[in-house]
Amino acid sequence: MQGMMMNRPLKISDIITFSAENHPDSEIVSVRTEGDIHRTNYLETSKRIAQLANGLETIGVKPGDRIATLAWNGYRHFELYYAISGIGAVCHTINPRLSTEQLLYITKHAEDTLLFVDITFVPILEALKDRLPKNLQFIIMTDQKNMPKNILNALCYEDLLNNQPNFINWPDFSEDTAAGLCYTSGTTGEPKGTLFSHRSTVLHAMMVTISLPNALKEGNKILPVVPLFHVNAWGLPYAAPLCGAGLIFPGPKLDGESLFSLMDREKVYSAWGVPTVWLGLLKEISIKKRSPKNFKDVVIGGSAAPSSMIEAFESLSINVCHAWGMTEMSPIGTQSNLPIRLKNSSLEEKLKIKTKQGRRVFGVELKIVDSEGVILTHDGQNQGELFVRGYAITKGYFKNQEATNNAFDADGWFGTGDVATIDADGYLNILDRSKDLIKSGGEWISSLDLENITMSPPDILSCAAIAVSHPKWDERPLLLVVPQEGKVVDINSVAALLSNHFAKWQLPDDILLIESLPLTATGKVSKLSLRKIYKNYYSERV
């Protein structure tokens, strides 16, 4: 027997409509690329979103079209999130830190038809104009007064809104309709696309709001330092308006001094970002000898937060929520906010818990398995590969059947590539990654991609790129190169070769020439041995 309830589709447009009606005065404050501060609220933003949606339809955007963005965190980027998906198109956020080759690949693979770009990134596209798809139209995210001279034949963002009605009857469609597209380079080979649906996005917003109540409540102001181009800023553009929390967008200014000033002025309650950005903020707090006004909560994810960082915030009475997730999970999977019974624990007891990745959020299931796929008991001791499933977790990669086939077990659980333990209270502790990936400042770097390019000159016999602990970036690549017998390899030439294929932040911090690489019993390079040998290489040089 089935229930007799209405079956209305979950749609992203419903979030902004609800927010405009129930939280009309909650603020959106943006540091603009034009250099000033922009202030608005959810009610006025909903009107501009309607104008933008009408403008998109006027220039021919159709359901299913992939519309790309190359932009900082700001109110215009936020408007694009809702206007694009609201009319049934797909918002494809592009990470400007990608290398030229990766940016070109994902733009072509996604088959983008429009690309919205902040003024800052116009030079990047001008340099690539002849290599980008010929039918790609550009729209610069500014007004006519600040419109730069460019060779992109671009439209002006504000012109797209001018003379458009500030109301729209949002169309109905299946909740499984694609809404967002985000590529991850977190595995070997080319970047892979995760295609979010309206259903998964709305459910994720509700899951996050339920699971992170310290930050997500009406009246709080939240600073997403995590970029809108990085997995939807961890769902904040949807969760914040849903609960009525204000959004303070930092734009391109992410140094400690700028963040402190913005947070202090706007009375930010909660800030979200990767560990590297908080190093700068903590330094500024030390200089100022105080925290920003009203700053009581920080969400740290993207890579493991050092115990010293968690202790520094907690000692200032700033609650640390250590979170974990993946692009493929929309992305939040676990969070470390303490249950009520542990709120009054000592700092030492809190650190024991908060250095772990936390407990699962509602809608996410976790399991760890051994090498044979046998599910292991959650006792905090058993170590196994972490698999996940849930309401907002991908079931495959966009236009990539091979990667899809390799990502799931026989029961449909997604393999994260992490080795972890889960204790009896449900706390996840990630120990290592089963694949040899390097996670620097919250961004993935493929060791295999580095090695494939390094091996192209004939004078190189073998090489290995490994992750080495770094005091600032969590991990940085170290490249070990073995020359062919009798050959001389110039390290500077190797570095120059790599710089032609990778973004600066993806390049190894150092390249070492060695005589040989340790091998496993099966003849493979033993990266485990290399990581042990060089584990303190960068920390000892600081």
Short description:
The chain is of the alpha/beta class and 542 residues long. The chain is 30% helix and 25% strand. The mean pLDDT is 93.
Task: Give the secondary structure arrangement, pairings included.
Layout: H1 13-22, E1 27-31, E2 37-41, H2 42-58, E3 66-70, H3 75-86, E4 90-93, H4 100-110, E5 112-117, H5 122-128, E6 137-140, E7 155-156, H6 157-161, E8 178-184, E9 192-197, H7 198-211, E10 221-224, H8 231-234, H9 236-243, E11 246-249, H10 256-266, E12 270-273, H11 275-288, E13 297-300, H12 307-315, E14 319-325, E15 332-335, H13 347-354, E16 359-360, E17 364-369, E18 384-390, H14 401-407, E19 414-422, E20 428-433, E21 437-440, E22 443-446, H15 447-454, E23 460-470, E24 474-483, H16 491-499, E25 510-513, H17 527-533
Parallel strand pairs: 1-11, 3-4, 3-5, 4-8, 5-6, 6-7, 10-11, 10-12, 12-13, 13-14, 24-25
Antiparallel strand pairs: 1-2, 8-9, 14-15, 15-16, 17-18, 18-19, 19-20, 21-22, 23-24
Write up what this structure looks like.
By secondary structure, the protein is of the alpha/beta class. The chain has three domains: 13-354, Rossmann fold (3-Layer(aba) Sandwich); 365-433, Luciferase, domain 3 (Roll); 437-541, 2-Layer Sandwich (GMP Synthetase, Chain A, domain 3). Helices cover 30% and strands 25% of the residues. It contains 17 helices and 25 strands. Strands 2-1-11-10-12-13-14-15-16 form a nine-stranded mixed beta sheet, with helices on both faces. A seven-stranded mixed beta sheet has the order 7-6-5-3-4-8-9, sandwiched between helices. The longest helix has 17 residues, at 42-58. It is globular, with a radius of gyration of 23 Å. 48% of the residues are buried.
